[in-house]
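for the recovery benchmark. tokens below, seq after
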């Protein structure tokens, strides 16, 4: 294949494309509306309304009241280590590596301590395990346990649940990413379906078919003349969408989330292969029918493989991870290769010249 000839065909088609102002407007507007404006309208209210704080992953944790004495530091007169207590009152002690059961603990400092079925008041805790314990006007860090009642206390634990926004963002990102995959698969139905049958109807195809370009070079030029505007407008909308989403999300999460690895791989591999699949199928349809409207109607069925992926993502059956992106990119790439050779095998320039009305 002489790529110079394919380049000439592509340049000729792009020059014709520049004259179609309405088509250019549609190709630029669709990705921006679907990939930028609609996600902002749909998801920004959700992001600004959901709580950002992570909840403690403690079974049976209840809290009430407000902790005011941030500088609470109990006065102690003795340090006790490596022992256990049962059913007593402990006060003003530093307790290290202690096992406490069914006790009342007042004004103590607890480190690496296990407390069961007890009450703790006006104390400071660190790196301790609490089981069925009531904590009153105390503070603690690095805690773990279950069935804890915190009354006017400030307790922090080692285990946290994902915040609501952490649970929403992956689903939201998957849905927005699917838009940037299905849009480049849809745009070629506007351009590529016109590539052969439209030129035939306008009497501008015959001189091109009469040139010494091979069928492969002609098809390659037609393919890239549709592929480049489709992916160009998609990348433009993608860049704009990423910037706007980060501007909105950074105040809530503290750092830019996009583009992540999945988004980058999708835009480098999955979106181009989906777009190329649509372009090839549209050019194939355009070369076999003699009416532009029929070509565009048949072109609507071409995006079905991408629609199947979208339905899988929306239903939750498919999660767009880097591995899944690689699998579908290879699948679409194989389809692209098969479609190109099939289109070149059945392309018949003599029939287009002599039999189309």
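predicted aa per position
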């Amino acid at each position: 294949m002489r790529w110079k000839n394919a380049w000439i065909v592509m340049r000729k088609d792009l020059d014709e494309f520049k004259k179609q102002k309405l088509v250019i407007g549609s190709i630029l507007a669709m990705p921006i509306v679907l990939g930028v404006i609609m996600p902002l309208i749909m998801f920004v209210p959700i992001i600004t309304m959901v709580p950002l704080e992570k909840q403690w992953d403690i079974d049976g944790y209840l809290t009430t009241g407000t902790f005011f004495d941030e500088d609470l530091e109990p006065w102690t007169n003795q340090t006790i280590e490596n022992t256990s207590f049962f059913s007593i009152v402990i006060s003003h002690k530093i307790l290290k590596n202690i096992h406490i059961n069914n006790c009342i603990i007042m004004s103590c400092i607890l480190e690496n301590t296990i407390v069961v079925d007890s009450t703790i008041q006006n104390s400071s805790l660190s790196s301790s395990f609490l089981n069925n314990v009531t904590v009153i006007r105390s503070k603690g860090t690095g805690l773990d346990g279950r069935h804890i009642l915190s009354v006017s206390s400030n307790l922090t634990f080692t285990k946290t649940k994902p915040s609501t926004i952490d649970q929403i963002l992956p689903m939201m990102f998957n849905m927005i990413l699917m838009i940037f995959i299905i849009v480049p698969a849809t745009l070629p139905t506007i351009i590529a379906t016109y590539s052969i049958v439209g030129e035939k109807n306008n009497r501008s195809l015959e001189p091109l078919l009469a040139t010494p370009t091979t069928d492969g070079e002609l098809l390659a030029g037609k393919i890239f003349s549709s592929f480049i505007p489709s992916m160009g407008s998609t990348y433009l909308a993608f860049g704009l969408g990423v910037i706007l989403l980060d501007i909105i999300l950074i105040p809530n999460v503290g750092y830019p989330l996009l583009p992540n690895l999945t988004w980058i791989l999708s835009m480098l591999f999955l979106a181009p292969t989906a777009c190329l699949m649509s372009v090839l199928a549209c050019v194939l349809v355009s070369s076999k029918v003699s009416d532009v409207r029929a070509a565009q109607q048949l072109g609507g069925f071409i995006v079905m493989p991408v629609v199947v992926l979208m339905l899988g993502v929306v239903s939750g059956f498919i999660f767009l991870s880097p591995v899944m992106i690689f699998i579908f990119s290879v699948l679409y790439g194989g389809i692209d290769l098969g479609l190109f050779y099939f289109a070149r095998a059945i392309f018949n320039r003599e029939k287009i010249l002599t039999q189309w009305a």
